[in-house]
Amino acid sequence: MNIRVAALYCFTRFDDPAAIKAPLAKLCCAQGVKGTLLLAQEGINGTIAGSDEGIDAVLAHIRALPGCADMDVKESRAETPPFYRMKVRLKREIVTMGEPEIDPRATGHYVAATDWNALIADPDTVLIDTRNDYEVAVGTFAGAIDPRTPSFRDFPAWFRAQRERLLKPNAKVAMFCTGGIRCEKATAFLKAEGVEDVYHLKGGILAYLEQVRAEESRWQGECFVFDQRVAIGHGLEPGSHTLCYGCRRPVSEADRQSSLYVEGVSCPACHGERDATQRAGYAERHRQVKIAEVRGQGHVGARPLENP
């Protein structure tokens, strides 16, 4: 696995994110690094992939930005390129919650991956998965509450509606997400709502799968990731899920046995959401992707996954 994948984020203060964008994009392209990086006044977030030298150069550049010296980075390896191109984008938020008054740096208590099992085994702990519904369907921790939210911006309304049911006397709230960024904002949100006993998994599920042995794990299934690997398992090894390029949802081995699954076109979840014209367009796009793969080229119409 020669391709190095780096998932990174840092909540900090960028007074002028636009001034950061061009030099960062130029460096990534010069180093042959691909992926997506999001910039906002609250910091930086994204996943990139490339050679060891290229990733080193980009990470060094980012860590030299204000407040990014101790930036959290989770790394893994891939056999094939997980991204087709490089994008550096300006956003209002690096992870969208829609609560502009929240200070994402006012987080709850970090819990190391090696200490996570003890926390969530406590009967007074309320364990909440802060990810989107299609991510939870791929895998989650045993006993975790699934908010069934299609987007992270739906999380605040869900919590406010469920608060009285969830927060029993002496309850501790433990939350987790893929790499830790949504947990940081979710714990900051709960603290702003007056909940103090809040914890989150440092480094997210990725850190847990990397550091906790499978025989000791409380994780069930695979972990959805926002790149062409689609899902990973313990040891950050590639998982069994693929991606439906009609709806961008993960597709399990069982889903691929369905008559409603057509590679590159539709899956059981979206077959009824698309008409014949749309499916024909997806089929043509898939054909062009396959031609590009045979030629060893990146298909220009292929778009990377993004963390909503």
From TrEMBL:
Superkingdom field: Bacteria
Reactions that this protein is recorded to catalyse: uridine(34) in tRNA + AH2 + O2 = 5-hydroxyuridine(34) in tRNA + A + H2O
Protein family (similarity comment): Belongs to the TrhO family.
Task performed by this protein: Catalyzes oxygen-dependent 5-hydroxyuridine (ho5U) modification at position 34 in tRNAs.
Keywords: Oxidoreductase, tRNA processing
Matches recorded under NCBIfam families: PRK00142.1-4 (NF001136)
Coiled coil: none
Listed name of the protein: tRNA uridine(34) hydroxylase
InterPro entries according to UniProt: Rhodanese-like_dom, Rhodanese-like_dom_sf, TrhO, TRHO_N
Cited Pfam families: Rhodanese, UPF0176_N
Domain Rhodanese: 121-217
EC number(s) stated in the UniProt entry for this protein: 1.14.-.-
Origin species: Sphingomonas vulcanisoli
Keyword DNA-binding: no
